[in-house]
Specification:
This protein is an all-alpha fold and 280 residues long. 70% of the residues lie in helices and 0% in strands. The chain crosses the membrane at residues 25-46, 58-78, 84-101, 152-171, 238-260.
């Protein structure tokens, strides 16, 4: 890391008394960046959704990917301990993704209700039998509406169910080295696919409108830093693979931003999607 280059120079120049404090500060700084740096990219996206009251440009499958990846990473820790900052990062990321899901669900449901009210008020008296679509719930076990539910509590139930099942399987299989290593690989591979839902969403829309470019730029810088951190700290090899794949996907999304801004495709009107659940 950076301290490996700075500290030897300080020792040669007679600054030995500063070596220990600087060493500690650099370690704390790197650890803090690992713990909290992962959630920073979602702050501009969260604020954009809050300000515009429109979440169509953001794929909530990003939240699904990160929730699964970080739950698996925490379970992997029980089989093979890794650095505490990485464990804390997973806990904070899970909380952040739940907050993102809560906001996106509230915004989407509110927009659907507003559109239904406008449609109902514009209808003739003979259309008074206008029926609202049935509510979608996790407990319906309908795969057609998986991750397109109407209530935030359904997402929480799904996360708890997944955690319970995978946690129990992990508890029974902790003595298996093959299982633990496979679990670690699944965790980092899932996280490496983080940007894929957003990449596909942009491709479907032929536009990056509604997606925070700041978020993607922060993804890229954060994933680059994280990959270097993994390599220098000799983290399990799965983590380094994850970082490299993430940087590759981030660059692909940035290429989409450039391409769709220089060569605009047919615009997708948000108003033509009264129920934006499929987008989310």
């Amino acid at each position: 890391m950076l301290r490996d280059f700075i500290l030897p120079i300080m020792e040669v120049d007679g600054w030995e008394w500063l070596v220990a404090p600087v060493h500690q500060l650099i370690s704390w700084g790197a650890s803090a960046a690992m713990v909290f740096g992962g959630v920073v990219p979602y702050i501009p996206q969260y604020r954009d959704i809050k300000r515009t009251q429109n979440a169509e440009g953001f794929s909530t499958y990003v939240c699904l990917v990160l929730l699964v990846a970080n739950i698996l990473r925490i379970l992997f820790w029980f089989g093979r301990h890794f650095e505490s900052p990485l464990l804390l990062q997973s806990i904070i990321m899970i909380i952040t993704m739940l907050l993102m899901l809560k906001l996106c669900t509230e915004v989407r449901v509110t927009n659907e209700l507003n559109i239904k009210r406008r449609s109902f008020s514009a209808a003739d008296s003979k259309d008074e039998e206008f029926k609202t679509p049935p509510k979608r719930s996790f407990l319906d076990f309908d795969l057609n509406y998986f991750w397109h539910w109407n209530k935030f509590t359904d997402y929480v139930q799904c996360v708890l169910a997944f955690t319970g099942v995978t946690g129990y399987i992990t508890y029974l299989s902790l003595d298996s080295v093959v299982f633990v290593e496979t679990l670690g690989f699944l965790a980092v591979f899932t996280e490496a696919m983080l940007g894929v839902p957003q990449l596909y969403r942009n491709y479907q829309n032929r536009s990056t409108e509604g997606m925070s470019v700041k978020m993607v730029l922060m993804w890229t810088s954060g994933d680059t830093f994280k990959t270097v951190y993994f390599l220098l700290n000799q983290a399990p090899f799965q983590f380094s693979i994850c970082g490299l794949l993430q940087v590759f996907v981030d660059m692909a999304i940035l290429l989409q931003v450039y391409f769709y801004s220089c060569y605009p495709q047919k615009p997708v009107s948000h108003t033509t999607h009264p129920a934006s659940t499929k987008a989310l």
